[in-house]
Every structure is written in structure tokens, then in C-alpha cells.
Design goal:
8 helices, 5 strands, five-stranded mixed sheet, alpha/beta, 47% helix
Length: 182
């Protein structure tokens, strides 16, 4: 496959460890990120393309079934691997970690009046947790030494990114429950 890339993008793909493609929905982020990943792989860089979009279309672009949350080799392109992040898997890990209730072993048990409210609070998911879990997976790749020469991120549309950035405002309502318990 022969791809036409401008020299600035070629330079970025040749010299960087991470490239993020972002923008509004429907502008071609997946197509451009996949084409760039192919170019890098065909030029000798072991490349991983990661989709952080909850409405993944990377598998459709590759014309290959991608099991959510698993890294697989892209058929027909040596050096190219793909991953569609599955925030649900990370959310399940979060749920099991938070299911440990330190108050269960306290001597007063369920006898205090606010214990029922506290229990319902512990079972709530904060708003934007799916975006936060996906972002955490991205940071995991960035912070650890990976086997890849290049990691290309096909990010979620700008709306999802803006939702993540507005997380502090969304959390104010969630934290309001804590204040009412007080």
C-alpha cells in the first residue's frame, strides 16, 4: 500500500513515540490515524494503533474483528497491531476494587442512621467514569515502557474529550451527596 503523507507528518511518525489524532466526530480521525499507522509500520516501526472512541470504528477500517480490550496483529501489515480500548473492563476492575467496604468491619456495623445512605453512595459511579477509565488506559501506555516504537491514538470525538475536561463540574453534583451525608 502506497500512502501519500506530507513531510511534516512523515517526520512526526518517524521520530515520535506517541501520536494522538483528535477532532470532531466524522472528520476522518480513524482513517488518518490508520493510514499513518500503516505508513509507520511499513517503514519499519513496530506500531500500535489504539482507539479510545466508545463507538469504535477501527475494526471496520481495518476490515478485521477486534476483540474489545485485546491487542491483535493487523492482518496483511507486518509490524502493525491494533487495540480498541474497552472502558467496561477497566470499570469492572474499578467496581471490584471499590466493593471493599472498610466500614463493614467496624464495631458499630449498620446501626448508625447514615449507614444506608453511605452504602448507596459507595455503589454509585461518578459521572464520566467511562472516559476516565479510557484515559487511564492511555496513560498506562504512555507511562510504561512498551514494546512498540510508535503508539498512534485514534481518540474519541472532541465532545467526549470536552466531557472529560468538564469532569470537575459534573462531579460537583456527585460530591453534593457527600455533603448531604455530612
Amino acid at each position: 500500500m502506497f500512502l501519500f503523507l506530507n513531510k511534516n507528518l512523515k517526520s512526526l511518525l518517524s521520530q515520535n513515540k506517541f501520536i494522538l489524532f483528535g477532532g470532531k466526530g466524522g472528520v476522518g480521525k480513524t482513517s488518518i490515524s490508520f493510514a499513518s499507522a500503516i505508513w509507520a509500520a511499513e517503514h519499519g516501526r513496530k506500531t500500535l494503533i489504539i482507539s479510545t472512541d466508545p463507538a469504535h470504528s477501527l475494526g471496520d477500517s481495518i476490515d478485521q474483528k477486534l476483540p474489545k480490550g485485546e491487542t491483535v496483529q493487523v492482518e496483511g501489515v507486518s509490524n502493525l497491531y491494533a487495540l480498541e480500548i474497552n472502558p467496561k473492563i477497566n470499570l469492572d476492575e474499578y467496581q471490584s476494587a471499590k466493593s471493599v467496604n472498610p466500614l463493614e468491619s467496624m464495631p458499630f456495623g449498620d446501626s448508625l442512621p447514615f449507614m444506608e445512605d453511605l452504602g448507596s453512595f459507595a455503589n454509585m459511579n461518578p459521572p464520566g467514569i467511562d472516559e476516565a477509565m479510557a484515559f487511564g488506559k492511555v496513560l498506562e501506555f504512555i507511562e510504561t515502557e512498551s514494546d512498540y516504537d510508535l503508539v498512534v491514538f485514534d481518540t474519541a470525538p472532541t465532545g467526549h474529550t470536552l466531557r472529560l475536561l468538564s469532569l470537575p463540574d459534573l462531579l460537583s453534583g456527585w460530591i453534593g451527596k457527600l455533603i448531604s451525608l455530612r
